[in-house]
Amino acid sequence: MGVEIERKFLLAGDGWRGLVERSERMAQGYLVSGAAIAAGHAKCSVRVRLSGDKGWLNIKSATLGVERHEFEYPIPYADAEHLLHELSDGVLEKIRHHVMLDGTHVEIDEFLGDNAGLIVAEIELPSADAPYPTPSWLGIEVSEQSRYYNVNLVDRPFAQWSAAEREGKGGTAC
């Protein structure tokens, strides 16, 4: 069974930019959306993603926190493109930057479009209590705040957030 253990953080500076090993542009959409999850009509999100010349289908449990069930499968690019543009509830675009820090892989998502200005670091861990690096540019943890989940950024993008929400304060979006 697939389990993702991931912590999400806002960034407190640009010190990570000089550590980027590679970056990739991504477009993704949801076939089962945050609105369906929030209304109690779904137990999971179903995402389609285009990254480079590859397509992916992802199923992730609709639970809050650092540990969630996750399954991801490669699919033909043409299928992913069709699903994204014809069946998803909207398209979220971002640039994912890959950073290695003290042997730990950090993915930094720099969002585009209506989510421009939002930059979130994600650190996948082997267990929920595993240690991880805490450089000065790593800001507050937002793993428990559902508004930072990509599935919710499609329905309620960063451009619609209040000033308090933009600073990592306030309630959840869903």
UniProtKB/TrEMBL annotation:
InterPro entries: CYTH-like_dom_sf, CYTH_domain, NeuTTM/CthTTM-like. Coiled coil: none annotated. CDD domains: CYTH-like_CthTTM-like_1. Residues 2-155 form the CYTH domain. It comes from the Bacteria. SUPFAM superfamilies: CYTH-like phosphatases. PANTHER family: SLR0698 PROTEIN. This is CYTH domain-containing protein.
